[in-house]
Amino acid sequence: MIEVQNLSKRYGRVTAVDDISFKVERGEILGFLGPNGAGKTTTMRILTGYMPATEGKAIVAGFDVFEQPIEAKRRTGYLPETPPLYPDTSVVDYLGFVARIKGVPAAERTQRIQQVMERTRITDVANRLCGKLSKGYRQRVGLAQAIIHNPDVLILDEPTAGLDPKQIIETRELIKELAGTHTIILSTHILPEVSQTCQRVVIINKGHVVAVDTPDNLTARLRGSETMYVQVDTSGADASAALSRLPGVTRVLEAERKDHYISYEIDSERGRDVRRDLARTIVSSGWGLLELRPMRMSLEDIFLSLTTDETQTPAAAGDAPPPETVATATDGAES
Amino acid sequence: MRNILAIAQKEIKAYFAGPIAYITLGVWALMYGWFFNALLQFFVRQSMQMNQFGMQGPQAMNVNQQMIRPLLQNVTVLILFVMPGITMRTYSEEKRSGTIELLLTSPLTDFEIIMGKFIGALTLYGVMLAVTLIHIGVLFVYGRPEWKPIVTAYVGMLLMGGCFISVGLFISSLTKNQIAAFMLTFGTFLLLWVITWIGSFAGPTIDKLTQYLSIVDHLDDFSKGVIDTTHVIYYLSFMTFGLFLTAKAVDSERWRG
Ligand SMILES: Nc1ncnc2c1ncn2[C@@H]1O[C@H](COP(=O)(O)OP(=O)(O)OP(=O)(O)O)[C@@H](O)[C@H]1O
Ligand SMILES: [Mg+2]
Questions:
Q1: In terms of C-beta density within 10 A (0-12 exposed, 13-18 middle, 19 or more buried), how is residue B19 classed?
Q2: Based on the structure, what is the number of domains in chain B?
Q3: In this predicted complex, what is the ipTM?
Q4: Contact residues, chain B to chain A, C-beta under 8 Å
Q5: What's the whole-model pTM score?
Q6: Mean pLDDT throughout A72-97?
Q7: Distance from CA of B257 to the nearest CA of A (A)
Q8: Which residue of A9, A11, A49 is in closest CB contact with B105?
């Protein structure tokens, strides 16, 4: 349904998107994951025909977006990063205008507007001015305009940004409902969002695709190492030597040192539970075990473990990332 | 055509939904009324003096020549001030608020968007001209002006306004800052207006050229009751050129991102 081939986009000397390729099958939801400035919005803008690519090709709903832009646009719904609303227009009038320019036949317009307003739960603000709506409602009106012409392809740039938790759940439900009849690409920074709504994930960083996989596979392969958080009271002594000697432990990092406790982050081999050994060692050394828990891998960790290591290619899927990746985690966080 | 109409209607609604249309029309009506009154009083005083000297017949004051023609010339100056206010938001506002993303990702051609915006602005300008017709109507109640030069003058003003709008659209498409668009448009209009003065100091050849370039100079024949095709062609090609520049600007913006 969507096919992206060797797409590149340069703004002057800045390369925003560098030679990316991926495919989305009909009815699928594809998550576009990446940190700020990764090139998500740029890619989406190219797919929707807002701007041409510097190089490469994009086919949406069977039409090349550069060769037959009108045909492609007819079949695409787009929710930009900021919902494109006219502040002085009421929600119904706004949707009426969008329906018109998207080519919804006059006879069907009123009914379509009612339908999408119900679906996106904005019927109660139908006569309010768009400029007076809260962020969450703006986002929903934005979603309503994207689906008004019942497009084959939906491109949603951070559809849940700025929503409250309840609305986030509602929006995700709505997106899942829409899949099947629509092919969807959505971008996000949030990993749980991807694992809950998407069948496949494209992780992109600095314009490069670093991984394309299902959320489950991705999490699994990134669990190359398990990390434990341990807080001990050693009355000042250093426990790292004793802990790193344990079988299966690959690295011990001192995370924090206070007067009455030290906390460590302990990496271990994948699939090997070192909790018992850790606890035994600490207790038998006469230290106080204050806390011991597995650390959840945040998006940043997963992301950085994929992007900070240049040598690891997506092809090397099953390989465990080297332990050093965690150490460099904080360095690259801002980029 | 359907799409052009949809955009044009949206534009007109936008003018009247915000303060722009009302401010523009208000300022316009006030200033126009002031010019009208001033000229009318001047005209009345003059014709009374003429009557005292007993001049009648062919020498008598002509409403069209002494009243309507100078009035419309002054109106041109007014348009210079008011028009940038109409065109400044056309593209700038869409860029600033991000609604340009909606337009450019909808199944519309650039031509349809530009024409829609052009027709929208031209419609508001048409409403402004209609307001002035009320005053002209007053002249018909109290006197017997010739209607033909008035009609041709309005045709000329509509054409001239179209030129100003095409320039305004182009400048608005260059920036997301409405104030900058206003200033730049106003400056350009002034330049197009005073260009003949510069020309008149610079020798006959340049004088001819600048006269040809001056949007305003082409209006004069219209207000004399003549529709000269050279002027019509001039205006139409000027408009086409302005709209063409707008299309180029929109397109190059798309490439630059
Ligand atoms: N109009 C532009 N002109 C110049 N550079 C741009 C422009 N738009 C984006 N960029 C640059 O291109 C890169 C990718 O930006 P993009 O907006 O696609 O990132 P993103 O993944 O959507 O980020 P975010 O998560 O913050 O929305 C960034 O380095 C950005 O600075
Ligand atoms: Mg973005």
A1: exposed
A2: 1
A3: 0.86
A4: 2-3, 6-7, 10, 13-14, 17-18, 97-109, 254-257
A5: 0.81
A6: 95
A7: 7
A8: A49
